[in-house]
Write a structure and sequence with these properties.
Layout (H helix, E strand, L loop, with lengths): L2 E10 L3 E4 L20 H12 L3 E4 L6 H14 L10 E5 L4 E2 L6 E2 L4 H8 L8 E5 L5 H14 L5 E9 L16 E11 L4 E9 L8 E4 L4 H4 L5 E4 L1 H22 L9 E4 L4 H15 L5 H4 L4 H4 L6 H10 L13 E8 L3 E8 L1
Helix pairs in contact: 2-3, 6-7
GO molecular function: 3-oxoacyl-[acyl-carrier-protein] synthase activity
Keywords: Acyltransferase, Transferase
Organism: Roseivirga pacifica
Length: 355
Amino acid sequence: MAGVIIDGVGSYIPTRIVKNEDFLNADFYQENGEPFPNSNEVIIQKFEKITGIKERRYVEPGQTTSDIAAIAAKNAIANSSVTGEDLDYIIVAHNFGNLDKNGNRTDMMPSLAARVKEQLAITNPNTTCFDLIFGCPGWLQGAIQATQMIRSGDAKAVMVIGAETLSNIVDDHDRDSMIFADGAGATIFTASNTPGGYISQCSRTDAQEELNYLAMGKSFKPDVAESPSRFIKMKGRKIYEYALVQVASAIKCAIDKAGLGLDDISKVLIHQANAKMDEAILLKLFKLYGVKRDAFELMPMTIEWLGNSSVATIPTMLDLLQQGKIEGHSLNKGDKVVFASVGAGMHINAMVYEM
């Protein structure tokens, strides 16, 4: 089988910064439709302590998910050894397509991947485009599929993009809306005979009671709830408890498949969902291996200033690391890295990759 390497990374970080204090005048409601007994100041303080988020990025009015996906794609091509015409596939991972602020018009036809191809002005008819809906782990699942395509001999170059504009699908009256953000990250996977690259992966889906831990629902504000609009809703405590056990196990599965131990891993790039949860996952992983390591040395974080941009968090972090823009963290040739994510479905995946 052909080896598979990442040959180009790019991202787009929206320029509109939304700080926690910008929510001080928000009109938050509980799930039962009643206002919170605490002030917004208290709500925001607790939110920041748990999630680690101080600010997030939103797209400008009129910018769509496919627009920012195309920008990240152009940046990835500029940093690669291939051209757009060399791509066999373009895969765009997202969950909501292009949509309006009310969250009541999801536009997924034509596919976002086809729109990206058009914006890149790629004329090669054999560059096949499709979208992937897989919750927050979508980019990583696309990376797994790209790797399988190349290893099977079906492709030589595959672009995988994770892009989302969650600011258009959140309920402004739900305090969980503060978690979500916008962004795009793109990677190009190519066949290679050189050492390094893809080593192993594990993935799973739990779709019994876990199915509705993240789902679409009505606004928490009673008068808005009467409208047909639907927004992201999540059962935070259930997700935390599920992720704590299952994500650590998936990471260990991938490392074990690679024939490695935790001491062989230089970095764990985990989906930026919640700082407290991500740290707890790493501590659970240490417990599974019976070792003690510095979670902050092993796990770079961007959630403090970028928030949770779903499918875009890992490829964006990878791009920032490649550019040396995450203080205290770097990636060097030969480093063995784990990518890991969890999200709606519930889906989990993990990949071991050698730089």
